[in-house]
Design goal:
This protein is α/β, with parallel strands linked by helices and 756 residues long. The chain has two domains: 243 residues, Rossmann fold (3-Layer(aba) Sandwich), CATH 3.40.50.1110; 402 residues, no CATH class. Helix content is 61%, strand content 8%. A hairpin with a 6-residue loop joins strand 9 and strand 10.
Length: 756
């Protein structure tokens, strides 16, 4: 870690990802929309001073504010621009040489009560080289002139942002005869003079002119595409304008995916309390461990002086107390959360933008699929969607989703549509699994509900506190939590219909189907009534959980995207269990699910359906239209996969232990990736080892998987303590949890008030 300001890196270093995506060293660059640019520059005055190259930069900059602007105007004259809706003024002042005229204009802003521009971008040199035929006398005069201008720029830099743009290299082979004297050697000499003279007299760190040297690096890669060998291609100057916008606006707009030039966010009150709690937990655990260690030493075997024989200690090593286990869990969790904070909140580790290529997505996919096949084992049972099989399913889906996120494959629509099916498949399993449990066990007790809710939400609640993020930010957990409660309410509400009751009287099956029809009707109504949905989830305290950026639209969008798939999972479970009860399907080891003829027909239909969906998803042209169809058609590929995976007896009897291992920690993997594998809340990639992308991914992945596994164990251990089976004890714990959330709400309200 070199330290320093990320703004310096943004202005001076970086590389291209592919042909057009610029990656600054150590930080992420946000792509500003015109609305964001206007909000940042409202009531601001920006001035560009220089030659035709600066004029190019001026046009690219104002197009970020108003994309409709055309490059029409006097080429060798001043060009004004104003956006009256946001009171933004951007002026280009034609001063192609660093001379007395430029000095006089800059000096006018330093005198008296003249309004100073908020941003000043200056640069010139090629005209001096051209007019004076590249003479050494012209370079000497340039040094004298820039020496006289430097103190004025430094004075302006106290209250304004001042940037000196170094001269870009030229493509000498393409230069016209009148420009042949403009060589890269001369440009380097002028740049060297500017860098040496600027800020040489400044003792105040605030009164520094920012040297915009990154343009040189960009030009070195792209100047060959220039029309005349002198002026940059449009894509390059647009990149320069975007860098300028990031340098000035990131600290104002604070975009999540723009880590350059953003200061470390201050610790909130809740974060400070969490830090104190984890610190005390670590200290408490160390004290108890030392006490137990000393007691163990005292009780060790000792020699009897009279008989000379060794005595056995009367007291054995004590069992781990509930308090010690609790402190042990919070001790480990505290260390893990420290790592989370350092990775994604402290400006300690570097972050980079994602860049998608087909190879970065498909090669890892092929690798893990081949690896998964090598870990094939026999299942303990051969039922449809048995535990090993569902863990395997969750595991390979989670690995594919992780690769999808780190490779930035969401920009490739066919991949996006297939990943949407994987997310839907998770929710399908939610409907299938919880329905099967309640239908077979008939257990609607509070203990079961609390266990599920704790295991689903524990990590997310901790991250909301430590990382200062709203609950809805981790959208998948609210989604599965709400659907679990919907499934529970559907089956638990009177009349309760379970398998044992339905076996006694077949009419109860119709009662259950009636409940499912009512559920489907409610889902349909809410999906087409955004107003009703938002009203329900805008009531306190639901609004505290489901609001993101001040509204519940994001929650409505996420819910609507997979609105039917949980219902499909419940319906599939009901049909499957009914077929199983009436022995219509055969689940013996090695046996096909149905008769050979029926199995072959179903297998053929499933394969065709699976491929048909993939062809449709691959031919998608518009993400919005495809998202509209997705809730209704995603179940086709899910059911096709289940049948392909379960109809052949041999395929149903084996599973991949490699994928199943990841499946057991799939929820933790999905949540942890936000901060310790990806970066900037999933918008970028965490860089622990700069300069070695492959090695960096290997190291960060290893740590990430270990942490997810450890958190899974911590969650399971704490679930046994926090959610006991005894009802009276459980009630006390629930009161404590209610008190905890009340305190959290109180401190959150205080925090919000102090922010406003």
């Amino acid at each position: 870690f070199k330290g320093g300001d990320t703004c310096e890196y943004l202005l001076s270093s970086g590389r291209f990802l592919g042909e057009k995506v610029w990656q600054p060293h150590s930080c992420m660059m946000h792509k500003y929309k015109n609305s964001e640019a206007k909000n940042c520059l409202i009531d601001k005055h920006v001035v560009f001073i220089g030659d035709s190259r600066i004029r190019q930069l001026f046009y690219s900059f104002i197009k970020l504010i108003n994309p409709q602007v055309k490059e029409e105007g006097i080429k060798h004259g001043n060009i004004p621009f104003e956006d009256k809706s946001a009171s933004i003024k951007v002026d280009f002042l034609w001063y192609p040489e660093v001379n007395g005229s430029m000095r006089q204009r800059i000096k006018s802003w330093t005198e008296g009560s003249v309004a100073k521009p908020h941003i000043i971008v200056v640069g010139a040199a090629t005209w001096s080289i051209k007019i004076h035929n590249g003479s050494n006398e012209a370079l000497a005069q340039y040094k004298i002139n820039i020496t006289s201008i430097a103190p004025l720029l430094e004075k302006l830099a106290i209250s304004s942002d001042v940037y000196w743009v170094l001269q870009d290299p030229v493509y000498e082979d393409m230069l016209s005869e009148s420009r042949k004297m403009i060589t890269n050697e001369k440009i380097d000499a002028y740049n060297e003079a500017a860098v040496r003279i600027l800020n040489s007299s400044s003792r105040n760190s605030k009164a520094k002119v920012k040297v915009f040297s990154v343009s040189k690096l960009i030009a070195q890669e792209t100047i060959m595409k220039s029309v005349d060998g002198l002026h940059l291609p449009e894509s390059s100057r647009d990149t320069n304008a975007m860098i300028l916008m990031n340098v000035y606006c990131n600290k104002i707009v604070k975009p999540i995916d723009g880590s350059c030039c953003q200061p470390q966010p201050p610790l909130t009150l809740i974060q400070k309390i969490a830090f104190c709690f984890f610190t005390l937990s670590i200290i408490g655990y160390l004290i108890i461990s030392l006490i137990h260690r000393n007691n163990y030493r005292k009780n060790k075997s000792c020699t009897d002086l009279e008989s000379g024989e060794e005595k056995k200690p009367v007291i054995s090593t004590p069992n781990v107390s509930t308090l010690e286990m609790l402190l042990h869990c919070f001790c480990k969790l505290g260390l893990i959360m420290t790592y989370f904070y350092l990775c994604d909140r402290a400006n300690l580790f570097m972050k980079e933008n994602k860049f998608y290529t087909h190879s970065s997505f498909f090669i890892p996919i092929i690798y893990i699929l081949v690896l998964g096949v090598f870990y094939t084992e026999n299942t303990k049972e051969t039922k449809v969607l048995n535990r090993e099989q569902t863990d395997e399913w969750k595991g390979w889906m989670q690995l594919v989703i992780l690769i999808y996120h780190i490779s930035g494959a969401s920009t490739f629509l066919p991949v996006y549509m297939h990943i949407r099916v994987l997310v839907a498949a998770y929710l399908f399993q939610t409907g299938y699994g919880h329905f099967s449990y309640f239908w077979i066990k008939g257990d609607f007790g509070v203990y079961r509900v609390c266990q599920v809710l704790f295991r689903l939400n524990f990590l997310v609640v901790v991250l909301c506190i430590v990382m200062d993020r709203p609950y809805q930010f981790y959208y998948f957990v609210p989604l599965v939590t709400v659907w679990f409660m919907i499934i529970y309410a559907t089956l638990a509400v009177w009349p309760q219909v379970v398998q044992k009751k339905a076996n006694g009287n077949c009419l109860w099956h119709f009662g259950l189907l009636l409940k499912l029809i009512c559920l489907l009707t409610c889902i349909y109504f809410l999906s087409y009534s955004q107003g009703a949905f938002e009203k329900i989830f805008s009531f306190w305290p639901l609004s505290k959980c489901f609001e993101l950026n001040g509204n519940v639209y994001e929650w409505w969008f996420r819910w609507k995207l997979d609105r039917y798939v949980v219902f499909h999972g419940m319906l599939f479970a009901f049909i499957y269990l009914a077929l199983q009860k009436h022995q219509i399907i055969s689940e013996g080891k090695g046996d096909p699910l149905f008769s050979n003829r029926v199995s072959n027909v179903l297998l053929f239909i499933s394969i065709v359906s699976f491929l048909t969906y993939s062809i449709w998803a691959s031919s998608c042209k518009n993400k919005t239209e495809c998202n509209e169809l997705h809730p209704s058609v995603s179940v086709v590929q899910i059911l096709a996969f289940i049948l392909i995976r379960n109809i052949p007896g041999y395929v149903r009897s084996v599973y991949s232990s490699f994928f199943a291992w990841f499946g057991k920690i799939s929820l933790e993997l999905f949540i942890c990736q936000y901060h310790i594998w990806l970066a900037a809340d999933t918008k970028g990639i965490l860089v622990l080892i700069p300069g070695y992308p492959m090695f960096n991914v290997l190291v960060s992945t290893f740590i990430f998987v270990c942490v997810a596994h450890e958190i899974s164990q911590i969650t399971n251990d704490l679930a046994q303590i926090v959610v006991p089976k005894d009802n009276s004890t459980l009630l006390k714990r629930l009161l404590c949890i209610a008190g905890f959330f009340s305190g959290l709400h109180f401190f959150s309200a205080m925090q919000d008030q102090s922010r406003h």
